[in-house]
Amino acid sequence: MYLPAPVKDGAQERRSLIGTHRILVISPTPSVLKMVAKAAQPQGWLLFQAEGLSEIKLRLKDLNPQLIVLDVSHKVAEEVDALSAVLKRSEEVSSRPLLMVLGDRDSAVRHQLASELIIDALIETPVDDLELAVEVRTLIRVRQIASKALRDRDILNQLFELSSFSSDFEDVSAVLESMVGRLGDWMRMPHVVVTLGSAKRASIAARFDNEPGNFGQSLVERRHLEIGLSGEELCINQSDGVLAGEDVETLPYIGLPLKEQKGEVLGVLHAWGGPRLPDASQLRVLRAAAGRIGAEIQLSDSHRQLEKMVETRTSDLTALLGRIRAVNNQLVEASRDTIMRLARAAEYRDGDTGEHVDRMSSYAQIIAKQMGMSAEEQALIKLAAPMHDIGKIGIPDSILLKQGKLTADEYDVMKQHPLIGARILAGSRNKLLNMAEEIAATHHEKWDGTGYPKGLSSVEIPLVGRIVALADVFDALTSPRVYKHAWSIDEAVSYIHKLSGKHFDPDVIVAFDQCLEGMLEVRAEHMEQSADAPPLNVSPAP
What average pLDDT score do residues 159-186 get? Predict the structure, then answer.
């Protein structure tokens, strides 16, 4: 789709573009528009054009494009300072648009834009049709991967928050009220209700209403009976509900049974209204929330029973509390497992087996303990360290999987993966993801300031980044790769000592030496689990 000019009602256009991907082309050349359209439209992306600065500003505001194609031969490029300022402001959004610049190699405008903006692709003019198509498709793929990673981060954050949600509340009613409010806001569904009781007798335990209109008292009673008897989820979309004679104000509708450990239905989590039914990722969080609510209800019921039995059944009380804590631990473990799987996905993408993140995260935890970090910080670094290279999912396969040596330009792109990883993990209020962001951004910095991406030095580098840097290198040295044999432990330790005060923090190396025995025990455990693990005395290839 190609729209030659912006519409006046920007809000209306934004609503019509929800869920689409958009490319903004700043070029007067019809052939450029046709070439970009040919590459983008089969992917379902929408193509738009802008001319003057005012129109460019309007398009950036109304469309929030994922990709901008700028032809520096365009007359607007003559106003390079103003154009650069406009594009810089557009990068203030949480996920900046990718930028492709077309222009002559010696163009002064091109050089100035390259020095002031983050440019993701440079195409020399005259433009080659095939080269432009390949670059557009590559950038589209990069944006799709990054968007999925952001969605996965949101799901991980929701799951992790749910695992310890009740810690700030004293009673189950407050937990439920706060939880349904959070679910309503997150899913953008105006009505979320929890009903408890037997199938034939529903009582409202918590409700969230974010828009006026029919609350749906009869709806929740009817659905509570239906789901309570079947014990199954119920989803009704707008069209099916209307055909069945349902009140349009109660559509779309989703109901999930709240079950205790043995499968008995305790109640129902209802949600209705809004633009559409939850997608697969939202449904995953809803199921986790239903499990959490069920656990909270069981916890509350158990507390009431235990208060009556405490004087005569102390031993039974302890056992029951242990089972309840096990339920909570299972939810926390599920969140941690999801995080580890996402981290392993990034490792698999560049050929690693995934065992590297398991080992190096254990090494980082051991070093953190030796350096006096708190028990909470030790647990967080073990969970956060595996996400150190998650930014590699934003590196094109042509560079990440290249067999030979990278060119200088390719290496510059590869060095962007710490910043990509930090952007993926940024913006969370969760301690784990905050630490993961620090590690992703700084694990390639060096003590003497010669690292990347920012050239930080000494204590400018966060301690967790310094620890993970050493743990990562130690495991890389002592593990086989397709291009090298594993080094022996003595050789690896000697090499690390040579880099004290250069690559590594001398204090971290001292802690490393003091806890090396514990790290080797962890390594041995992994060797037992992998028939391909190398013996300790293997020397590097000459």
Answer: 66
